[in-house]
Write a structure and sequence with these properties.
Helix 12 packs across helix 18 and helix 14 packs across helix 15. This protein starts with a strand and ends with a helix. 36% of the residues lie in helices and 21% in strands. By secondary structure, it is of the alpha/beta class. The longest helix has 17 residues. It is globular, with a radius of gyration of 25 Å. The chain folds into two domains: 277 residues, P-loop containing nucleotide triphosphate hydrolases (Rossmann fold, 3-Layer(aba) Sandwich), CATH 3.40.50; 249 residues, Rossmann fold. The chain is built from 18 helices and 21 strands. The strands form four sheets. It has a nine-stranded mixed sheet with strand order 11-10-12-13-21-20-19-16-17, sandwiched between helices. A seven-stranded parallel sheet has the order 5-2-6-1-7-8-9, with helices on both faces. It binds glutamine (GLN).
């Protein structure tokens, strides 16, 4: 039977609960334990699919096509725990299911209430994730902050876990803030209050992770312990770091976090093996070379909007022993003015990420043209690949108005369009292609060389496709269509001929890149950007 660790957050949001939960998962795996991770988002949306990346950060996609919160990306990068739809729970899903059962008459005329019906559904969903053979622990991160109205049913369900499974099978880890006030003095009062708020609903935390600008002194830990009833050893200092988030498991481990969890839950106490993780953190910190990557996107103001892409670039850096500097360029800025080269003076490689809607598209097209003509390594992802195709159709094929029907429904050359707009294939509607599927790579292409195989599986999240009508035109004019769906109908990858590294992919390789497994496309892109930098001198 799985044991349960609930991770809650106090005082305020954005303290890094996702990374904290993922770091704990990482440490348990380093002790040979098998675990699963669940993210609870107390919002009413059924999933994150329709959420604006500017408000909520990137939408992370799992193999089975769930559109989830970006914290699942952290779980993927820090652990080996597989993720699917079942690992992401929202209030919307819970209510939808309970109401469906009510309409079917499954409650036999009883009054349907938050307790027990909503809480039972929550518990059922959590238990289902961890009930497979051999799973030692399920870590459940409850989004939001203790005290939020929305999270109350989830916290109540969590409290009931102790009642249902016993204290030795359920623990609570609470992430809190120890802010500093004038002259840098650290204050414990907000932590005391947030632990009180938890206790009011019947939950006594077992471990506190205290975010603070610097490590907590022993006396401070003792004070927090006294006021919160959490043992001093279990008051862990989660201080600010300037290196990399991948160092966080090591910082927790040094303070004995995994040992405390193993003891409290009476888990199999095998020695830790995190040598590989240590190595990659030190490779990251000690990287000698610097590569500057320009990301020409439309959501550049909010770091979380392209979270997985930035992380995958860092992984590419780890693979090449190089430190990545991200230069975020708002593509709209490239639309006015002719000196586009000025934006890229300092840059060694250009990445055009995914996105939806027309704003900033023309700037991305300019960036793609600049990279193609000036031999800059260029990596187009999803929308980025579509941009590379549009640019090619306009400037090489001479179709000045080539476009995607997403941006110009009346274009005379709809090189990118919905499948339903393409005469040849009518099987799909305008629905999103979501999740993992197969791509066949053409031998002899750069991308085939990079992956070293004919068949790959990657995750998708898009509606528009390179129109079948124009495949021949594009090929004849020299664009390499280097990857297709197994039925040979849909373009999955393109590349520029006679160019050092110009690759566009319709899928999202960033979602499966990990620090311990840098994705080959990101590793290759960084390697070429380094070479390009060295050539420029
Ligand atoms: N908007 C484009 C489409 O729907 C690209 C999507 C994306 O970049 N994820 O096809």
């Amino acid at each position: 039977m799985s044991k349960y660790i609930f991770v809650t957050g106090g005082v305020c949001s954005s303290l890094g609960k996702g990374v904290a939960a993922a770091s704990l998962g990482n440490l348990l795996e380093s002790r040979g334990l098998t675990m699963r991770m669940v993210k609870i988002d107390p919002y009413i949306n059924v999933d994150a699919g329709t959420m604006n990346p500017y408000q909520h950060g990137e939408v992370y996609v799992t193999d089975d096509g769930a559109e989830t919160d970006l914290d699942l990306g952290n779980y993927e990068r820090f652990t080996r725990s597989p993720l699917s739809k079942a690992n992401s729970i929202t209030t919307g899903q819970i209510y939808q299911e309970v109401i469906r059962k009510e309409r079917e008459g499954r409650f036999l005329g009883r009054t349907v209430q938050v307790i027990p019906h909503i809480t039972d559904e929550i518990k059922h969903r959590i238990v289902t994730v961890g009930e497979h053979e051999g799973i030692d622990v399920t870590i459940i991160e409850i989004g939001g902050t203790v005290g939020d109205i929305e999270s109350i049913p989830f916290l109540e369900a969590a409290r009931q876990f102790i009642h249902d499974f016993g204290k030795e099978n359920v623990i609570f880890v609470h992430l809190t803030l120890v802010p500093s006030v004038s002259e840098g003095e650290l204050k414990t009062k907000p932590t005391q209050h947030s632990v009180s708020a938890l206790r009011e609903i019947g939950i006594q935390p077992d471990i506190l992770l205290c975010r603070a600008e610097r490590p907590l002194e022993e006396s401070m830990k003792r004070k927090i312990s006294l006021f919160t009833n959490v043992e001093t050893d279990a008051v862990i200092s989660a201080f600010n770091i300037t290196t990399t988030i991948y160092e966080i498991p090591l910082i927790y481990s040094k303070q004995g976090l995994d040992g405390i969890v193993v003891k409290k839950l009476k888990l199999n106490n095998t020695p830790k093996k995190n040598g590989r993780w240590r190595e990659l953190v030190s490779a990251y910190i000690n990287a000698g070379k610097i590569v500057k990557i320009g990301i020409v996107g439309k959501y550049t103001d909010l770091h979380d909007s392209y979270k997985s892409i930035y992380e995958a670039l860092y992984h590419g850096g780890i693979a090449n022993k190089a430190r990545i500097e991200l230069l975020k360029i708002d593509s709209e800025q490239l639309e006015t003015g002719d000196d586009i080269g000025g934006f890229f003076k300092e840059i060694d490689g250009i990445l055009i990420p995914g996105g939806f809607g027309q704003r900033g598209i023309e700037g991305m097209i300019k960036a793609s043209e600049f990279a193609r003509l000036n031999n800059y390594p260029c990596f187009g992802i999803c929308l980025g690949m579509q941009i590379m195709v549009i640019e090619y159709a306009r400037n090489v094929l001479g179709r000045r108005h080539a476009n995607s029907t997403e941006f110009d429904i009346n274009t005379d050359y709809p090189v990118i369009s919905l499948l339903e707009e393409q005469v040849d294939i009518k099987a799909f509607g305008g629905t999103m292609r979501l999740g993992k599927s197969e791509t066949i790579l053409k031998p002899g292409t750069l991308i085939h060389r990079i992956y070293g195989k004919d068949s790959i599986f990657e995750r998708h999240r898009h509606r528009y496709e390179v129109s079948c009508k124009y495949h021949q035109d594009l090929k004849k004019s020299g664009l390499v269509l280097s990857g297709f769906t197994p039925d040979n109908n849909l373009v999955e990858a393109i590349e520029w001929k006679n160019h050092p590294w110009g690759i566009g992919v319709q899928f999202h390789p960033e979602f499966i890149s990990k620090p311990v497994y840098p994705h080959p496309l990101f590793a290759g892109f960084i390697s070429e950007s380094l070479a390009c930098k060295e050539q420029k001198g």
